[in-house]
Amino acid sequence: MRRLARGLSRWLLLAVLVIVWELVTRAAGSAFFPPPSTIVRRMHAMWFSGPPDRLFFTDLAVENILPSLGRMAGGLAGGAGAGILLGLALGLSARAYDYLDGVLQFLRAIPPPALVTVFLVVFGFGLRMQLAFIMFSVVWPVLLNTADGARAVEPLYLDTGRTFRLSRRERVMRIVLPAALPKIFAGLRLALSLSLIVTVFAELLPGTTNGIGFQLTVAYSMFNLPAMWAGIVLLGILGYLLNELFLVVERRVLGWHHARETAGA
Amino acid sequence: MNTPALARSPLARPRSYRWARRVTGALAFIALVELAGRAGLAEFMPPASEILQRAGALLLDPAFRAHAGTSMLAWAIGLAIAALVAVPLGVLFGSFPLLDAATRAIMEFLRPIPSVALIPLVALLIGTGLQHRIALVIYAAVWPILYNTMYGMHDVDPVAKESLRSYGFSRPAVLWWVSLPSAAPFIMTGFRLATGVALILTVSTEIVAGRGEGIGVFIYFAGIAVPARMDDILAGVVWVGLFGVLVNALLVAAERRLFRWHLARTGGGA
After folding, report:
1. B169-B175-B176 Cα angle (round to 5)
2. What is the pLDDT of residue B269?
């Protein structure tokens, strides 16, 4: 009940905020800061005024929002999968971790956009380059968090597993992986927001032909400020929704962990 | 938690031993890049010796130094302003829950916006010079500092605060003597995270804007040259990466030194 009230008051505050924003921008009348009503109308006209049988999505939405989300999902899945696998392998061997720690810290410290030209040269413009770039960007937080989680597994659990003659594979799947999950999810959450950022970044580069970032560039070159704001608001909403979705999944998967934490505390 | 685990933990091994392995690993990595380049395995990969040689030569090149200097300037100014904005705000929101509740909606609305999506808009608003990068660095670097400061303020021991209050200390005094020192390690962690984010935004903005001076501009032009100057790109990347590692290592060392008491309290975690 209290949670409901808190959620309600939050939305109420947001509504007040949007109204204030509307009034201020109308009074100011600046071309650079269109009122929210103009932005929403533009969003509707651009993306959500399609036929009902297509859930009101316009061609523009299908041609730009879907490719963006697809690239992001593909890159995130590939990068996260590789990060978890490599992270587990690295976390299981203290020696491998020692040897690779320095190299990994260096690779992680490189801002991914600095390497985008490398991917451009290797893959040329297009989907392959974008996917490889997104994967490379998101792999590090997942890899390093997974390795940390796998390293911190209670040795007693592993010894117990050995006593019960679990094979190495079983120990990894039944002991190490579950124990590392909270850390893995922390890394995945970083990777999620990073993947949206690098997807948009890749789409802002010349040579892109579709995507939300591409629409931002088009709006920029035509000095179309409402369209630019529409793109930014759309990305904000997408970011918010993706994060909420992630939290739901995390609560499901890590329910046992949180239950144990509160019980133990 | 349990002492037997410590004896087997890799943390328990002597530091020099770990350093030796780290250096060996780094040398092996460099050797691998060298081999890949020489064997032509990766068609576009110059050997490590060439990249490192180029990186060394660039350090003496005034044009490259100007690029790097401009980037570092934007990075530092943006970070400084972000910290000056975010720390007081975080302390304010952390001290007055009502204010926190009132502004939470704004923050939750702004935070999910991917910072790079603002690059074109900010370019239209204020042009593509140094101010462009600084503005975007500020926007991206504010969040980790703000959230960590607020978290640190919530983490302050209420008993300590109440005790000082009951001895008649004023609210500002309690803030100065209890809350701020207690939140300091969190603020520092937030700042360290922000340095990495700021570096990403500096380079991204430079690459998208694609003009003026900056390490991102340097890398971008090396990339679109025909044929692409791969050794220049990778040498630039080496410098950016080393800069990031160095800043991070310095801040971690500073955290360890300044907040030893905090690490002792939290068991050295995080």
Report:
1. 90
2. 42
Instruction: Note down the domain range covering B157.
Output: 50-266
**B154 interface with A at CB cutoff 8 Å:** no
Q: How far apart are the CA of A224 and the nearest CA of chain B, in angstroms?
A: 10
B45 within some domain: no
Query: Domain for residue B34, yes or no?
Result: no
Kindly list the residues from chain A whose CB atom is less than 8 angstroms away from the CB atom of residue B230.
Answer: 118, 121
Of A217, A232, A242, the CB nearest to B118: A232
Average pLDDT, chain A: 89
CATH fold group of domain A56-264: MetI-like fold (1.10.3720)
Instruction: Express each pLDDT in A237-246 by its tens digit.
Output: 999 999 999 9
CA distance A179 to chain B (A): 16
Specify if B63 maps to a domain.
yes
Of A79, A140, A133, A75, the C-alpha closest to A106 is: A140
Check CB contact under 8 Å for B10 and A106: no
Q: Which residues of B touch A111 (CB under 8 A)?
A: 196, 199-200, 202-204, 240, 244
Q: What is the pLDDT of residues A81-130, one digit of tens each?
A: 999 999 999 988 888 888 998 899 899 999 999 999 899 888 888 899 99
ipTM attached to this prediction: 0.87
Residue type, A157: Y
Cis peptide before B227 (omega within 30 of 0): yes
Query: Residue B108 is part of a domain; what is its CATH number?
Result: 1.10.3720.10
More reliable by pLDDT, A132 or B42: A132
How many separate domains does chain B show?
Answer: 1
Give a yes or no: residue B25 inside a domain: no
The reply to whether the predicted model has a pTM over 0.90 is no
Compare CB distances from B117 to A154, A193, A231 and report the shortest one's residue.
Answer: A231
